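Review session, final week

We close the course with one last complete record, chosen because it touches almost every idea we covered. It is ABC transporter permease, a protein from Phyllobacterium sophorae with 293 residues. Go through it on your own first, then we will talk.
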Amino acid sequence: MMSSLHRDPVLNIDRMDAANPKGVSALPLQKITPASATRGSIPRWVRRFCGPVLLVLIWHVASVSGVLPGEVLAGPATVISSAAKLFATGELQQAMWISLRRALSGLAIGGTIGVTLAVVAGLFRLGEDLIDAPMQMLRTVPNVALIPLLIIWFGIGETPKVALIALGTAFPLYLNVYAGIRNVDSTLIEAGRTLGLSRLAMIRHVILPGALPNALVGLRYALGIAWLALVFGEQINATAGIGYLMANAREFFQTDVIVVCLAVYALLGLAVDFTVRTLEKVFLAWRPAFNGT
């Protein structure tokens, strides 16, 4: 029997009549491209840069036209010149490294405490009864209000700064990891029990992977809080760091240096957030997600 092809007006490809299934092998394979992928011709990374570039342009025009006086806020050109001077002397790199080290140290300590307590409270009812209520009480206490106590306990060195960051980052990780564990689909739990998984295997292969999306969201929140706590922490008799540069610039009304420090905080925060986004793509590749329209 001769095979007969006809043109599909919807898919715009040659299709085989149902009466000739043997002719399917003669059809060329075609890649199907989603309609959403062909709508825009501008790359996404270009569109993501448009907002910040537009904001800097508005800032520059306001500074050049005199709408925004230099005494109130230095213009982009002045800020870039000040950043270049600080970079040339090495002050900026040293301050960035010290601040980043403080933030990551506090995040490591606070994250370890928060995740450990969340796992214990999430997996065991006794752990929830003993841990959850104190954590809910402590998370409502403003971290800034603890600065006098931290100074009394740890002095005015590096320890109170790191402790303040650790306190600020422990709670968002605890809340999100705890919620992630308790919100794992019960159908998956029953499926694991049906397959005969042990308790340890259930935790490793079902519960913890199911809680990972919430844990990464908590990590992003914790990183944002880490930078906020760092700003306050570096006001505690700091002798180095971005906060130290800001404090000196405030004394001499150097708004350009203050803006440079704020920009460094923002860029460091953007860098660590990009790192978390990359981790989400790597560890959550198994989970289909909505990417927008």
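Two points worth writing down before the exam:
The radius of gyration is 27 Å.
The first helix runs from residue 44 to 65.
Good luck, everyone.
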